[in-house]
């Protein structure tokens, strides 16, 4: 499955956040015999639709989609030079599908900042710089060979152009993601074989003081700083307290801070979206479940997420949209009202499709 690597300078609250994430681990709750790796937190994506489906179908349990967060220790200035921890740090980031930077905004004299001052902008620059330098090194390594090959092969010439453009952006101190060169873009595809770090999607968690949670001007300023990436605002210490409370108490504490959901829930949702994922839904007496697919997945690909045999033997999918199902109150009623559709193998799945697959075995 796809993973989000958590990075940040020392003392910004990464461990506090990560501990909260792992305590929230849905694997532990739903799959008691699953092997849980110490540096991976599997977090449920909150989905109120599952509650409603479980009511309609009388489902015994609810299984949300999940996002995997990986704790990547060891960013230090000079990481890109590949000394000791630096190498491991870069290798771990290379394996992640998205990069989540944790940025300190909270003030606390008892917690030392490595640079002696609280400055989100300069922290982001420090981390970006290491990633940018690592990408520039990768590019320097391939350039001589690529330049040679480009004289003879048209395809290589196109790659060379993309690499030279990427190099210019990086030399300006910008990440490729910020410049719009994502893995899915035309240029990103040409750069694919280089496995550059800064074409990965970024997201930013600002670990803030309580008053900053509701400070719209502050939030807007930080959001603009990291655009086109998403900014999430939370207080890691409060998040770690929230998960110890029962639902009612947690809600009360959240509301007293002007929040309507825990920061971890926002992080899971935004992270899921940043990875380019979406869900479709299934429900029955056993379980109501959200399944993870890539945006743009077809019906047989969606079936394959449940079982490869479902994809191989795919005949069709009976689909009712979540809204129609809730309005009709049951699948038979939705069928009677003409709201159930039979879709074939070219159908592109939509978020909120409630599905039953028909297949040959
Ligand atoms: P890491 O080095 O980035 O993993 O940071 P830690 O999670 O170990 O946190 C460093 C210190 O900051 C610890 O003493 C935490 O208790 C404290 N800390 C973490 N988050 C917050 C926060 O939101 N507010 C305050 N005041 N302290 C925090």
TrEMBL record:
Sites where the protein binds ATP: 11-16
Needed co-factor(s): Mg(2+)
Keyword entries, A-Z: ATP-binding, Magnesium, Metal-binding, Nucleotide-binding
Function noted in UniProt: ATPase that binds to both the 70S ribosome and the 50S ribosomal subunit in a nucleotide-independent manner.
Domain TGS positions: 276-359
Family classification: Belongs to the TRAFAC class OBG-HflX-like GTPase superfamily. OBG GTPase family. YchF/OLA1 subfamily.
Protein name: Ribosome-binding ATPase YchF
Magnesium recorded as keyword: yes
Pfam families on file: MMR_HSR1, YchF-GTPase_C
Domain OBG-type G, chain residue ranges per copy: 2-254
Entry keyword annotation includes NAD: no
């Amino acid at each position: 499955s796809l993973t989000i690597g958590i990075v940040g300078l020392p003392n910004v609250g990464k461990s506090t956040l990560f501990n909260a994430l792992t305590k929230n681990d849905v694997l532990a709750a739903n799959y008691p015999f699953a092997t849980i790796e110490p540096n991976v937190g599997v977090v449920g994506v909150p989905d109120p639709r599952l509650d409603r489906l479980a009511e309609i179908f009388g489902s015994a349990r609810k299984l949300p989609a999940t996002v995997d967060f990986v704790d990547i220790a060891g960013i230090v200035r000079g990481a890109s030079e590949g000394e000791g921890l630096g190498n491991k740090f870069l290798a771990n980031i290379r394996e992640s599908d998205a990069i989540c930077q944790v940025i300190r905004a909270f003030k606390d004299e008892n917690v030392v900042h490595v640079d002696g001052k609280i400055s989100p902008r300069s922290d982001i620059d420090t981390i970006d710089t290491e990633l940018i330098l690592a990408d520039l090194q990768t590019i320097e390594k391939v350039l001589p060979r690529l330049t040679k090959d480009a004289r003879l092969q048209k395809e290589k010439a196109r790659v060379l152009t993309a690499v030279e453009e990427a190099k210019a952006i990086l030399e300006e101190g910008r990440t490729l993601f910020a410049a719009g060169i994502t893995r899915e873009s035309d240029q990103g595809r040409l750069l694919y074989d280089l496995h550059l770090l800064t074409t990965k999607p970024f997201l930013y968690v600002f670990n803030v003081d309580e008053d900053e949670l509701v400070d719209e001007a502050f939030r807007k300023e930080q959001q603009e700083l990291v655009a086109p990436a998403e900014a999430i605002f939370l207080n890691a210490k409060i998040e770690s307290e929230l998960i110890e409370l029962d639902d009612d108490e947690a809600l009360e504490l959240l509301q007293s801070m002007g929040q309507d959901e825990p920061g971890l829930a926002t992080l899971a949702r935004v992270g899921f979206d940043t990875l380019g994922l979406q869900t479709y839904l299934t429900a029955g007496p056993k379980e109501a479940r959200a399944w993870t697919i890539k945006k743009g997945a077809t019906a047989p690909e969606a079936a394959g997420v449940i079982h490869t045999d479902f994809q191989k033997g795919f005949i069709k999918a009976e689909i009712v949209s979540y809204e129609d199902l809730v309005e009709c109150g049951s699948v038979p009623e939705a069928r009677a009202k003409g709201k159930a559709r039979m879709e074939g193998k070219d159908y592109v799945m939509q978020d909120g499709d409630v599905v039953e697959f028909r297949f040959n075995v």
